[in-house]
Amino acid sequence: MRKIMIAGAVMASITMAGAASAQTPEAFYKGKTVSIVMGTGPGGSYDLYGRLLINQYGKHLPGNPNFIIEHMPGAGGATAANFMYGPGPQDGSKILMTHALPLIEKLQSSGVRFESRKFQWLGAYDQISQVLAIWHTAPGRTIEGLKGADVVLGAMGRYHFSYQWASLVKESLGAQLRVISGYPSGGELNLAMERGEIAGWTIAWENLTGGNAAWLKEKKVVIPLQFTLSRMKDLPDVPTLIEMSQGDSRAIAEFLASGTPHARALAAGPNVPADRVAALRTAFDGMMKDPAFLAEAEQRKLSILPRTAREVQVLTDKMAEASPEFIEKVKKVVGSTN
């Protein structure tokens, strides 16, 4: 009898799973709450974009589900990615707001349990544009000033852009600055900068314009460098690190910058049903063109530079093909060898 009961329970679960997978996207999402999972804590640019996305995404998805933010900080975004790749629900009820996963996969020496190529990319809403923000009373407010031994920069995990760019500044400029990692979010780094614990950090431009615009207006932060492929239109007189670098340092700066669209992308888990992924992609593309979405982004002072799922996949594949020799060189320079 016990064996019969167990067999019956197994058959019932299989039947229920089959019924769920047979649901149309509209039937599945109707009345659901969908989580946007981000690998950082509250505060900072990810949170700003997350609030925009949860307001708009559900309008374009069949069934019009509600959206919420779910914070899962750790390991520069790898903790959230591991969850979404493996034990997380593979039914489309959770969407990953990604960090630069191809870079994390290549550069992080341990703790990575995902393959960037196998995520089902939904698209990118922008590319992360980061700058070096230095508090107005701190040392390091100029390129030459950064070379001083008393300049301390903050960062999140050792595999996060904030740490990698700061490490590359040391290599490219021959600077003696110190980098302290372990801050859980951009909000915590901002507080540390205000309190004088650190001189500054590699901050997303939207973190400033969208969340701390008063700092720019009141000139409480100085920006000596930007970490972009080319100078942003808002900072035409601020050099990029690529401009300031030569040889291997320049090649590494260009490689890191090529990962910036992934740091503003969304992805579904590798085993989410194809019809739900298709619905999520169609909804994403529609949201990117929606006047209401664009108006709210402008109101929040958030940049929007969309890429399709296919475009993000192409970038992912290209970065996955980087040679092991080059990756080892990058690891050594940006502090990802341990």
Which class of secondary structure composition applies to the elements? Answer: alpha/beta
Q: In CATH, what is the class of the largest domain? A: Alpha Beta
CATH topology of the largest domain, by name, is D-Maltodextrin-Binding Protein, domain 2
Shape: globular
> What about the largest sheet?
5 strands, mixed
Low-confidence stretches: 9-17
Task: Explain what you see.
It is a single chain. This protein has 338 residues and is of the alpha/beta class. The chain has helices at 2-22, 25-29, 45-56, 78-85, 101-107, 161-173, 186-195, 205-211, 213-217, 241-244, 247-257, 274-289, 291-299, 309-320, 324-334, and strands at 33-38, 66-71, 94-98, 120-124, 130-135, 152-154, 178-180, 200-204, 221-227, 265-268. The protein has a 5-stranded mixed beta sheet with strand order 2-1-3-10-4, sandwiched between helices. A 5-stranded mixed beta sheet has the order 7-6-8-5-9. The protein is globular and about 60 Å long. 47% of the residues are buried. Residues 9-17 have low confidence and may be disordered.
What's the short version?
With 338 residues, the protein is an alpha/beta fold. 45% of the residues lie in helices and 15% in strands.
What are the defining features of this structure?
alpha/beta; D-Maltodextrin-Binding Protein, domain 2; single chain; 45% helix; five-stranded mixed β-sheet; 338 residues
Give the arrangement of secondary structure elements.
Layout: H1 2-22, H2 25-29, E1 33-38, H3 45-56, E2 66-71, H4 78-85, E3 94-98, H5 101-107, E4 120-124, E5 130-135, E6 152-154, H6 161-173, E7 178-180, H7 186-195, E8 200-204, H8 205-211, H9 213-217, E9 221-227, H10 241-244, H11 247-257, E10 265-268, H12 274-289, H13 291-299, H14 309-320, H15 324-334
Parallel strand pairs: 1-2, 1-3, 6-7, 6-8
Antiparallel strand pairs: 3-10, 4-10, 5-8, 5-9
Helix pairs in contact: 3-13, 6-11
